[in-house]
Each structure stands twice: as structure tokens, then as C-alpha cells.
Design goal:
The longest helix has 26 residues. The protein has a single domain, classed as Rossmann fold (3-Layer(aba) Sandwich), CATH 3.40.50.2300. β1, α1 and β2 form a beta-alpha-beta unit. The chain is built from five helices and four strands, in the order βαβααβαβα. A four-stranded parallel sheet has the order 2-1-3-4, with helices on both faces. α2 packs across α5. The protein has 160 residues and is of the alpha/beta class. It is 42% helix and 14% strand.
Length: 160
């Protein structure tokens, strides 16, 4: 089982969309039985909430299901997950600091490292912007999650 945790700040915008898109790509590849997929936030302000209504609307118009409820990253996540995919450099610093405290096997990777149009860049937080920002984040995450799946398949020798 390959376990992946997508992480943003509050777990109501970027990471739930990344989780939903990755589930979609994995399902299309016929590999859902080989993955455990979840999302979380570095903060716990929105714990228990569904994704932001604007992100849910963006997901619905693109036929993507966002199944999770917000939660905060837990110390046990560092051992439970193979990959912790973070949305921006601040998330990456926070998660790397927590990993130093808690240890674990998780490999911490920036989401857009798998985006051919923005390798190494952050996925911007659309929370304080308008609807266009949610659409742009959807496009970035769609490319990035597809690229991440391709990378995992190459790394692990998995074919669809």
C-alpha cells in the first residue's frame, strides 16, 4: 500500500482538492486498491469541516469528489505515510520541523515539483481571492497530481 498525505494550511482549499484529484487519477489508472490517500492541514482551525464552498463548487464543475473533512497533521502521520505532499514553502518548513521532532519515514515533497509549468513553485492559497483563483489552483493541482502519479509509477515500477 502506497500512502500519501496532501498538506496545506487549513485543509479546506488546496489539500482537499489535491486529495480529490489524486483519487480521481489513481482510480482512472485502475490502481485505487494500491493507495491510501488523505489530506490534512498544518493548523487545526477548520477541523471537522468540509472543504471551502468555493473549492467544492470548483470540484463539482470539474466532476471531482472531495471526500474528506479537515484535520490537522498528527505526529503519527510521519510514520503512517510514505509521502507528505505540501502546497507551499511555508508548509514544507513547518512539516520538516515537525518531522525532526517526531521522526518517521515520510518523504516530504513540494506539490508543484510535479508540475511541468511551475516546477518548484508554490500552489497559491485561493482562500482570500475570488473564484478565478480556485480555478487556477484546480488546474495546477490537476497537472501536479497527474505528474505525481506518473512519478510514483516510475519510482515503484507500477503500470496501469
Amino acid at each position: 500500500m502506497i500512502s500519501t498525505l496532501f498538506i496545506c494550511l487549513g485543509n479546506i482549499c488546496r489539500s482537499p482538492m489535491a486529495e480529490g484529484l489524486f483519487i480521481h487519477h489513481v482510480k482512472e489508472a485502475g490502481l485505487l486498491d494500491q493507495f491510501e490517500i488523505d489530506s490534512a492541514g498544518t493548523g487545526g482551525w477548520h477541523a471537522g469541516e468540509r472543504a471551502d464552498p468555493r473549492m467544492l463548487e470548483t470540484a463539482a464543475k470539474n466532476k471531482i469528489h472531495l471526500p474528506s473533512r479537515a484535520r490537522q497533521v498528527k505526529p503519527k502521520d510521519f510514520e503512517a505515510f510514505d509521502y507528505m505532499i505540501v502546497m507551499d514553502h511555508s508548509n514544507k518548513r513547518d512539516i520538516e520541523k515537525l518531522k525532526k521532532q517526531h521522526g518517521g519515514k515520510a518523504q516530504i515533497i513540494l506539490m508543484r515539483d510535479f508540475d511541468e509549468l511551475g516546477k518548484g513553485e508554490a500552489v497559491p492559497d485561493p482562500y482570500y481571492g475570488g473564484g478565478k483563483g480556485f480555478d487556477e489552483v484546480y488546474e495546477m493541482l490537476n497537472r501536479s497530481t497527474a505528474g505525481f502519479l506518473n512519478w510514483i509509477q516510475e519510482e515503484r515500477g507500477i503500470s496501469s
